[in-house]
Amino acid sequence: MKTVPLDTAQQAQATANNFLSNHLGDRFSADQAILNKTGEVWQIPVILAYPVIGSIGQVGEIKISTSSNVIVFHTPIEDMKQVGLKLYESYHDDIQAAFL
């Protein structure tokens, strides 16, 4: 697979969202990409979000090389699911109320 340099935070966020859509449900989303101190890696928080409510918290992180579209690290999928479930349970009433 050919790699393509990632020049912008939006490209890194799009790469992260593509990964998330392939591995987690539609409520998991990449937040704003932040360039690390060395400029070699985009750090992207993974959040759990709902329509109307927005983000209810961070569940993990994805790191993407700035020189390619390769993910060099991500919080394990199962860990993100577990944190997401705990957040969902904490905000259950607010989530349900938003859809009534």
Walk me through what this model shows.
- By secondary structure, the protein is an alpha+beta fold.
- It has one domain: Roll (Nuclear Transport Factor 2, Chain: A), CATH 3.10.450.
- Strands 1, 2, 3, 4 and 5 form a five-stranded antiparallel beta sheet that branches.
- β3 and β4 form a beta hairpin.
- It is elongated, with a radius of gyration of 14 Å.
- The model has no long low-confidence stretch (mean pLDDT 88).
Number of strands: 5
Structural class comes to alpha+beta
Helix content: 25-40%
**In one word, what is the shape?**
elongated
Query: And the CATH topology?
Result: Nuclear Transport Factor 2, Chain: A
Q: In the CATH hierarchy, what is the class?
A: Alpha Beta
Determine Rg (CA atoms, Å). 14 Å
**Poorly predicted spans:** none
Name the average pLDDT. Answer: 88
Level-2 CATH architecture: Roll
- Tally of discrete structural domains: 1
The profile of the biggest β sheet is: 5 strands, antiparallel
| Element order: H for helix, E for strand | HEEEEEHH
Distance between the termini: 46 Å
Count of DSSP helices?
3
Strand proportion: 25-35%
Feature tags:
100 residues, Nuclear Transport Factor 2, Chain: A, 5-stranded antiparallel beta sheet, 3 helices, 5 strands, 36% helix, elongated
Write the layout of secondary structure elements.
Layout (H helix, E strand, L loop, with lengths): L8 H15 L4 E3 L3 E2 L5 E10 L3 E12 L5 E4 L2 H14 L1 H7 L2
Antiparallel strand pairs: 1-3, 2-3, 3-4, 4-5
Compact summary:
This protein has 100 residues and is α+β, with helices and mostly antiparallel strands. The protein contains three helices and five strands, in the order αβββββαα.
